[in-house]
Here is the input.
Amino acid sequence: MAAYYEKLTTLFWVSENYLFHAFAWYKYYTLCKEFNRGMSVEMRQMQASAVLLAALCIPTVSETQKSQKKKEDAIDAQRHHIQSTVEDDIAKEKMARMATLLGFHTRHPTREALLHEIQSRNIMEDVPDYLRDLYSLLEANSDPLVMVATARPLLEKLRAEVGSTNASMEEDEDSDDSTLARYVRPLTSVLLLKLLTNLSTAYHTVSLDHIKSLTSGLGVTFQQVEKLIVLSTHSKKFSVRIDHRAGCLRFGDADLESDAMRGQLTSLSKQLSSVCRFITPPDEVHQMAIREQLYSDVRASVENEHAAMLERKNLIEKRKEETERLAQERLKEEARAKAAKEAARKAEEEARMAVEERKRRMEKAQMIQKKMDDMEKKKIMKAMGRNIDNVTEEELNQIDTDKLAKEHADKDRKKKEAAERKTKELAKRLDYTYRAIAIEELPLIEKKYAEKIKSDRSRYEAEVVEKARKARLQWEADVKDKKVLSDHSVYDYTADFEALVMKGRQAAHQELCRAEDERAEIDAEKQKLARARKRKEDELKRQKEEEERLKREEEARKAEAERVKREEERRKKEEEEEKLRQAERARMQEEAAKKERLRQESVKPPPPSRDLDAAASAANGPSGGGNRYVPPSRRGRPGGGDDRRGPGGDRGGSRWGGGGAGGYGGGRYEGGGRYEGGGRDRPAGGDRYGDRDRGYGGGDRDRRPGGGDRGGGDRDRRPPEPRNSRWS
Here is the structure.
């Protein structure tokens, strides 16, 4: 199921259905959190952030749009129209069926319901702090002047977020962008819509330059903002007009903006009343009588009219409900019948087309197979050397393809064997011929090679002589040219020209050096002024920083004094509480001691002499527990194993039991138990080591306070005496 909802998130994101995309993310996150116990903290935080961002990307429905819808419904009700049309009901039912089919927790998914689920499921605890701030900004903040400035760094941080929102997408390189940065664009649209909505509730006119300054830094152009305004106005989220001539936005209904339109009916009523009073002055007595008669008639008929209005209203509601129900039933029945008829027609058509397609496929396959067989037969017959031009279709059908192929294969095999035999004989003959030719042509090749060497040597010697002659002629011509150039003294003219050029260049160089020196002096003066200005600014900045430092130190001293004061108050309060706890502890100890004294005073007197002898003999026995038999597994236990109370004697009933002068040994309630009353050397303690810290009464074996509810030696649930406890 988790993989199913994971695919749904991608599907609804591509289709830009942000509502179902957010609900799919919520289901995917809850399933992963419930069943994927090994999910890391980073992955859980990333998925929780994706759930919150997907919910925030859902377009909001403003109060203006809701009021506009209520106003239109009221107008329809006055005109005796059905408030919710059949199309709206069908759309709602379609969305409810879609939500049920996808397994969402509600049949009517909305943005408010999803945000309420996120808050109630504590998903915000896994979300980073800057996303919580973004949620508070979009849901709670209504100041349009600081909204974008506050959201800009949060969106930049979200845009820089890296990492995938699930493990499977991390391994898929061809998948779309699955990071949190993909939510920046829809979040920017939601932020701009909320900004414009808040501006429409707070302002009547806003300049376009102010809108540009408010939306700067979000990565959107003003054309995109203008397009969003037009789409929002078209969807009746708010009413606004863009006045490009005045360069502003005008919020509010255009039909009611004129003051004359607002007060037209009031002005007309006042003028008509003045005219009527001027033409026919009212008779006060007659008017009073008419008014009294009117009031009496109204009082007499008000109840009947009220009942009639209620009855008429109920009748109208019933008629509208009945009309709506009948219309819905009729549409549903027509749709059901049409769907059934269309399904039957499609099924019949598909079955017929499937049969025809299968039949055509079989016929085509048979025809292709037959053509291939005929072509194979003709090919084999042509390879065998037969004439296939006069072969008819019937003759081809009578020929067996396998038999013909076998015959052709035998014939080819025989031809191949004959060709191989001829090739071997020819190769043998050619080998003999080549060897004979090589033997005969060897002397001719040697003679031709010697002639070639002789001709090459002659040609080389002739080329060397010709090259030396040409070099001599070239040298003589060069010597003549040098002599002619030396007579005309060209080099003197060249030196004069070079001196003239260098003189001009030196003058230009000196002029450039002078201009550069002047510019260097000007730059030095400017730098000097800049350094002076910089020193002044640094001094002012240092003074300002010094003042801020002194101010911070003063605030720190005040905060430290306040902290010391609070710490002192807290310490005094803790000391008072400690005194109260000690007093309460002393009171409880005193009450426990008092109850112990009362219990000891209520002990019965010793038994008669016969019982004393029996008790003494029992005390001297191996277990000190009485006259009854004690099994070995219970010997040596506290109290010696007898349930009856008896005097302890000199040594008590057991090594834990209270023998001796002060205790009652043998019984498991008093004297000889491991919780109370030992003997001469173990007073008021059941522990074998006296007053060790094993419970409040020093007698329990575990280190719980008082050994459970058995402190003090008795099994009733009275508070133990904390004399030997580590908690006292």
Summary: Residues 74-85, 167-176, 609-627, 637-728 have pLDDT under 50 and may be disordered. The longest helix spans residues 490-601.
